[in-house]
Every structure is written in structure tokens, then in C-alpha cells.
Design goal:
Blueprint (H helix, E strand, L loop, with lengths): L2 H25 L10 E7 L4 E4 L4 H4 L2 H11 L10 E4 L11 E10 L2 E11 L28 E5 L2 E2 L1 H9 L5 H28 L1 H24 L4 E11 L6 E11 L2 E5 L15 H15 L7 H4 L2 E4 L19 H15 L11 E10 L4 E10 L26 H7 L2 E8 L15 E7 L4 E6 L19 E6 L4 E5 L2 E4 L6 E5 L14 H9 L5 H6 L5 E2 L4 E2 L1 H7 L4
Parallel strand pairs: 10-11
Antiparallel strand pairs: 1-2, 1-5, 3-4, 3-6, 4-5, 6-7, 8-9, 9-10, 12-13, 12-16, 14-15, 15-20, 16-19, 17-18, 17-20, 21-22
Helix pairs in contact: 1-5, 1-6, 4-5, 5-6, 7-9
């Protein structure tokens, strides 16, 4: 098929995945109360990703291993039209228990044409704490219900008994089953688009076109890599501390560029932890794909990209733990940052490093006023690391999700809490010629004694600056319980009941700066000051900028003297 037709078909396949995401968002019962991260992708019938929608690129990175695992257990000839196979098993192909992966075949003229796969996050699948991420967990069983690939729909008929089992093991109740059903129904829209393409171009031509789309991506990456020098780079990033012992945890990544292949080797990474800070293999692969995809934003996320990356994640390690290690709070940001630090030396200035990552929290329990269980999970993004030529981004969107930040209104409507503060943190972005993105702080008061809060800070340590840039501010969780006068602070993970009028404050990390702060354009420093991102003390003491008069105009001569250039 010609390049024009291939491009048209590629656009149509992406549109099919995007339409499925829209249907899922509209049909899911969770969409009315909280943002749900989701991703749909189109695969060849052999299990190679061809196109994905506009949803979470991180969740999309989980799908290749999932589809491969499903086809190993269920060869294509055993999967009928209308079947929907789902799993959340971190040790088969998943990430953490609340992320449910699903796949369904597309048939045309009674022949298998393609597969539509999806990944969606849910608020709760049971476990000892709402949201399935208890800080005290020491095995996967404490994190919730785990199930291997299983048919929840067979020839379009739902297995209501199985849906009842899922619902009875979740604080979300029947909404969990309704959400999974919406995940399946959304596939039907993608199937119609694919069938239309097969009818227009023919069965065989469409399959060849899907292969061409993948090969075009692979060739584009190969051409790009061939122009770059051979490199073998190593970086180490802190992943926090071992729960209980306090021993440091390290992510070590060696990235080798050889010909048209990138190899990422995590040999030397810390052994798996006893607490829930391990990363399943699916999560680790997805983190690597996200990092490389960020360095090659012009390359579509499909099998062509995956085939250009070889990952070695040693078993029994923090990035590939063995059963039954808990995995609910993986060091995703540390993994991605370790890889990005190497990639930044291959793709100059293209990959942000030293980002604040995403903090996460779950509020759940039993609402006495409504006589019902509730669970609300969300993420808050830290500041992005600065790169050559631009400042780090502010926390407007999640780093690993297409979903926007949660809203005050949704949190308060779903949970018995009262939000008192949501704001960017002054002087939190690492100073530099290009400033790191600011941190954000959320603070809310708990209004019901039966409420449990679980939270993780994302970045394990202050994000580092680059090329003379300063580090960003560290993350912090503060729990204050006025009733007993106790206060608790941590930069790691927390699960507990703050009690009535207990105050939870979650502050993300600020992004690291890039380049010496004294090289920053004084007008930019002035704008940062006026926008509340930099204090007068930092403007003069760190950036060496003198602002004068009621309008705080830059005093050019005084600034030059202060910076040692006058």
C-alpha cells in the first residue's frame, strides 16, 4: 500500500482507539466522581501494537506484555468474537492491583483481524486499606484481590458470577463491575471502525498496512539512532528507603546505544524491598518506554518503538520483584529519571530529568453520614525538571497520565473532607538559567473518624539539577491530629486514620534547575517574582538580580555588579 494510504489508515486506527477512550470515559460510573486514567490500543492479531489513542502513554506501555501473556495462555483460535479477557496480576503483566487490563478480538468475515487492548485504573480492589496501597503491606495479598487472565465476557455474554466476586471484594461495590463492562463496551466502537477499514481496503491489505505502520516507526527510530554516536552511559537515582530498616534503595540504569538499538540494563539496582515500593516488570517496562518516548516524541508509540529497546531487569530486584512482594507504590519516577539521565546525554536537551514526579493519595473508608463505603484515588504532579532552552513545566497535568489534576469539588463530593489549600510553592523549583517547575501543595481536613488516608510522595529525594542548576525542593507528607496533638512527617509513604479534624498536607517535589542561576535572564527572574514563584530573597541571593522601585523593575547596573560582571 502507498504511503498516503498507510498514513490514512494509521490516523483511522488512532481515531478508533481515541473513540474507545471517549466511550469509556462517558460510560464509566467513576467518571462522575473522579478522573480515571485509561488507554486503548490497536494490535495486530499476532499481538503487535499498531496504534494507541490519546490516553495515558504510561498505561499504554503495559499493554504489549499483557497481550503477549494472554496469547500465550489463550492462542488466538481459542478466543471468540465478543470475548473479553482481563487481568490485574502484577506478576503476569500488570502494574498494581487497581489497574485492570483487558483485550478483545476483532473479527471480519469470520476471520480474526486484530485485537483491541485497554488499561484502566480503578479506585479500589480491596486489601487492608482503601485504594490497595497500604504502607504497611509486606505481601501482595494485603494490597487486594489479584486475578490471572480470565474471560469476563464470552461471546458477548457477561459472566455475572465473576462480576459479583469482583464487586464483593471492592469498596467500590457494583461500580467496579460497571466500570469493567464500560471498558468492554468501548471496544465495540473500535471494532466497528476496524471492520469499516477492512471493508474498504480489504482484509489482507489492511493487515499489511498495519505491519507497514509498525515498520515505518522502526525505520524512523533506526535512522535517528544511526546518526548518533555509540554511547554506554550509567546513572544511579535514589528510590527512597527500605520500609522498616531505613536502608537506602537505588535504581541503577545503564543505557547503551549500539547501532539502531537501545539497551537498558538495571543490573546493580537494589534487591526487592519488603514494603510496597517495588516495581513490577510491567511497570518497569512502561517507565522505560515513557522515558524513550519522551526523547523521541515524533515517533508513534507502537511495536516499532518497543522493538528498538531491549530491557534487562534482574529478578528479585526493585524493578522486577518475585511473588509475593507488594507493588502498590513503585518507584516509577526514580526509574524514569535514571533512564532519562542517560538519554539526555544521547538526545541533548530532549529529555527532562530531575522532575518532581507524581505524588498519589487515596481517601477511603466508611461514610457515616451516607451509610456507605467510599474510595477516591488521584495523583498530584510535582514540578518538571528544566532542560536546555526552557523552564520546567508546572503541575498542570500528570506526568504518567492523560488525566488532569483532580479538582477540589470532586474530592469533596466523593469524600468527607474539606480542602483548605491548593497552591504552587514559592522557591520550590530548582534555581538555574532555566528554572525547575514549582511544587504544589494540597491540604485537607478529615471530617469522619472512619476515614483512612494512604499517600506517597513520588520523588524519593530532592530532584537534582543539571549543568550547574540547583536541586528542587523535597516532597513531604504531614499528618496533624489535633485531637491528640500528634504530628507525623515523612518523605515516603503513609497509611493511617488522621481522625476527625485531622489535617493531611501533601507537598510534591519541585523540579531541578538547568544551568547556573546567575545566567538566568533578569527579566525572567522578575516575572517569576511577580507570579509568586520566586521570593525577593531568592531573586537577589540566588539569582543575583536587583529589583528597584514600586514596579520592581530590573536595575541593570546593580544586577551586573551583584553578578560580578559590572
Amino acid at each position: 500500500m502507498g504511503p498516503t494510504t498507510t498514513e490514512i489508515v494509521g490516523s483511522a486506527l488512532r481515531a478508533a482507539a481515541e473513540k474507545a477512550e471517549e466511550i469509556m470515559a462517558a460510560a464509566s460510573p467513576f467518571s462522575k466522581t473522579q478522573y480515571i486514567s485509561r488507554s486503548y490500543a490497536i494490535f495486530t492479531r499476532e499481538g503487535k501494537m499498531t496504534a494507541h489513542g490519546s490516553g495515558s502513554r504510561f498505561l499504554a506501555g503495559l499493554l504489549p506484555l499483557f497481550v503477549e501473556s494472554v496469547l500465550e495462555l489463550n492462542p488466538l483460535h481459542t478466543i471468540s468474537p465478543g470475548d473479553f479477557i482481563v487481568t490485574n496480576d502484577p506478576y503476569t503483566c500488570g502494574s498494581s492491583l487497581p489497574v485492570i487490563l483487558g483485550v478483545s478480538p476483532v473479527y471480519f468475515s469470520k476471520r480474526p483481524l486484530a485485537l483491541v487492548a485497554s488499561a484502566c485504573s480503578y479506585s479500589d480492589l480491596g486489601g487492608s486499606a482503601p485504594g490497595g496501597m497500604p504502607a504497611q503491606a509486606r505481601d501482595i495479598f494485603q494490597e487486594g484481590l489479584r486475578f490471572s487472565p480470565v474471560r469476563v465476557f464470552k461471546r458477548g455474554i457477561p459472566n455475572e458470577g465473576l462480576f459479583a466476586v469482583l464487586s464483593h471484594n471492592s469498596r467500590s461495590g457494583s461500580n467496579l463491575s460497571k466500570g469493567i463492562k464500560a471498558q468492554f463496551w468501548a471496544v465495540q466502537t473500535a471494532e466497528k471502525i476496524l471492520s469499516g477499514l477492512a471493508g474498504k481496503y480489504g482484509f489482507e491489505k489492511l493487515m499489511r498496512c498495519m505491519e507497514e505502520i509498525i515498520e515505518n516507526s522502526r525505520r524512523s527510530i533506526a535512522d535517528r539512532l544511526q546518526t548518533l554516536p555509540e554511547r554506554n552511559l550509567i546513572s544511579s537515582v535514589s528510590a527512597g528507603e527500605e520500609p522498616g530498616s531505613g536502608s537506602p534503595l537505588i535504581i541503577k540504569a545503564a543505557v547503551k546505544k549500539c547501532g539502531d538499538l537501545l539497551t537498558v540494563d538495571f543490573t546493580g539496582t537494589s534487591p526487592q524491598a519488603s514494603g510496597p515500593v517495588n516495581s513490577s516488570l510491567g511497570t518497569t517496562l512502561s517507565s522505560v518506554y515513557a522515558a524513550v518516548g519522551g526523547a523521541l516524541p515524533e515517533i508513534p508509540l507502537n511495536d516499532g518503538l518497543f522493538r528498538s529497546i531491549k530491557v534487562n531487569a534482574p529478578g528479585d530486584s526493585l524493578v522486577n520483584p518475585s511473588f509475593p512482594a507488594p507493588v502498590s507504590s513503585p518507584p516509577v519516577d526514580a526509574i524514569q529519571d535514571a533512564v532519562c539521565r542517560c538519554l539526555a546525554q544521547i538526545f541533548t536537551g530532549a529529555t527532562p530529568t530531575g522532575s518532581g514526579g507524581k505524588a498519589h493519595f487515596t481517601v477511603g473508608g466508611f461514610n457515616s453520614a451516607k451509610d456507605s463505603f467510599f474510595c477516591y484515588s488521584t495523583h498530584i504532579t510535582g514540578g518538571e525538571g528544566a532542560v536546555f532552552s526552557r523552564d520546567g513545566g508546572s503541575p498542570a497535568y500528570l506526568s504518567h497520565s492523560a488525566s488532569p489534576q483532580t479538582s477540589v469539588e470532586r474530592l469533596e463530593a466523593a469524600c468527607p473532607v474539606l480542602v483548605s489549600k491548593v497552591r504552587l510553592v514559592k522557591d520550590s523549583g530548582g534555581a538555574g538559567e532555566f528554572r525547575g517547575g514549582p511544587a504544589v501543595v494540597w491540604s485537607f481536613t478529615v471530617l469522619d473518624s472512619n476515614t483512612v488516608v494512604s499517600a506517597g510522595t513520588g520523588a524519593a529525594a530532592p530532584p537534582e539539577g543539571q549543568k550547574g542548576g540547583l536541586q528542587g525542593s523535597p516532597p513531604l507528607i504531614t499528618i496533624s491530629s489535633p485531637g491528640n496533638g500528634e504530628s507525623f512527617n515523612t518523605t515516603g509513604i503513609y497509611t493511617g486514620s488522621p481522625g476527625i479534624n485531622g489535617i493531611v498536607t501533601l507537598r510534591t517535589a519541585g523540579g531541578g534547575g538547568f544551568g547556573p542561576p546567575l545566567e538566568r535572564n533578569p527579566d525572567r527572574v522578575r516575572n517569576d517574582l511577580l507570579e509568586g514563584l520566586v521570593s525577593p530573597e531568592a531573586a537577589g541571593g540566588i539569582y543575583g538580580v536587583v529589583l528597584a522601585g514600586t514596579d520592581l523593575e530590573v536595575d541593570v547596573e546593580a544586577t551586573a555588579r551583584l553578578r560580578g560582571k559590572g
